[in-house]
Design goal:
Blueprint: H1 8-18, H2 30-33, H3 38-55, H4 62-83, H5 86-108, H6 112-125, H7 131-141, E1 147-151, E2 158-162, H8 164-170, H9 172-180, E3 194-196, H10 201-213, H11 224-233, H12 237-244, H13 254-263, H14 267-279, H15 281-284, H16 295-302, H17 312-329, H18 336-343, H19 357-367, H20 372-383, E4 406-413, H21 416-421, E5 427-429, E6 433-435, E7 438-448, E8 455-463, H22 466-469, E9 478-488, E10 497-506, E11 512-517, E12 526-534
InterPro entries: BACK, BTB/POZ_dom, MATH/TRAF_dom, SKP1/BTB/POZ_sf, TRAF-like
Organism: Heterodera trifolii
Pathway: Protein modification; protein ubiquitination
Amino acid sequence: MGRKCPGRKCQAAKVARKCPILAGPKNVRVANVRAANVRDANVGKIFGYLVWAATWADWTTCLDRNSALLQSTIKCTQLHGQTTGIEGAMKDLMAVGKKMFGFTRKCMSSKAGKCEKSLKQFKMSLKATTLKGRLAMILGNGEGADIHFLVGEGAEKERIGAHKAVLILASGVFKAMFRFDQQNSNFGSVDNPVEVPDVEAAALKVMLHFIYLDGLSGLNGDNAMALLYAATKYNIDELVEPCLQFPIPTLRNVFLAYALATLLQLEDFAYKCSAYIDKNADSLIRSDDFLQIDQKTLCEILERDQLQICGEISIWKAALRWADCQCLQNGHECSAENRRAALGPALFQIRFPLFQPTKFSEIIVPSGILTMEEELGVYQFYCHPNFQGLFPLQFPCHGRASDRHHATIVLNIEKFSEFAREIVGSERSSEAAFVGGMPWKIRATIKMAKQSTGKCLDLYLWCCATSVEEGEGDENWSRKCSAIFRIIGQGNGTEDFTRKFDDQIFNSEICNLGWSEFVTLSADKVALAIDVTVK
């Protein structure tokens, strides 16, 4: 025997205890929802009807058949809530909830065949009173879809239905595509869908949502670039700009975004992506995102002069990781020959002459990737930089931006008075700037002054060379550092507070340079600047 349907009162009480807004029809009131606005209250009523209807179901039979409908109805309510005004959507949603309630009660006393018939009648009875509501409904339930797309590749394939009339109005590409294939009556049917392997399913869904409802609620960093590609492919110009305005740091893979921008000749967007890559290169080239780029993009990245990295050896290790990944994907052994073949022209964008001679001999030569002539060319450069001789140098030898020996680092503090009142140990730090092949930051910390009950400002120039600590560079490094500390922007004719330091900084747990002092400022918005020279 199957399980008996839970008692009406008992089940309703359980639902009400779990969530006050999900009570039965008699108890679904605005007061129970305790919402601050009309929308919250009405949505609470709607879902109250839906869940109350579900509690009437026989948990062993009817609920299984009803669950798909419940999910479809909830999806419909979400579409309504996103795309229509409050006044226009509430009537439709209340009607959905009430019909769901009535359908479930009717289904309880029906056999399986009658229940399926009632389910069909319920779907057909759903109506919307606004244009957006009607479009949202047919987009959500696929009713009347006369074109189907099979989107994605491999296990990610998904069939998505749409309506030719709506798509034709949005894009001339769709119009031409449908006109060209109109002689084939089976074109785009459920059994013969249009295959679109180069577009992601999530991106196509967001594009359809925009075409039907002018909405961008599904746009995010994960699908922005896939959506940009789809919008460009189908010539949906209104959708291109929102994708280009999406914040660069939130994109799923900035390298692929740069490659796509280059492919589509979006120069401004490509510049934004490349600038972000330059600024964060030291961490980005260590990420898995770097392994997803193609050889052409790899060449373009490695040849950039503005990459902020901890020495050229970081480039070498990143390129080697990329080559190994390519070998594994192609089922090849990670041998020196296969690595060199995978890198191709990208190998000649690595600036081997910038390596320390000892590191070149200990790391690069044993790898076996360079030929003897290429190695001799580098050794000859070490001895006679301007002499070509028998072994011409085949690699770039000019430094990158991170190899500069002077820079000004700035840390802006908007409300210095609030910062000063924070607890001891609170700190602010600037973005890293690469000088002498090392990343440097300004670190400002609130500390307790010695032999005093007061607090003081701890201002330091800090070398945050994590890659050196990981053994990617010279573990015994040291730098001759000259720094001028300045507190600027006090206004009222007040001179900038300055102090100069000259010292030797070496690899240790504390590799910084600075001082602690009481500071009284006449302005609440100040800038801490350090002019640093590293040799």
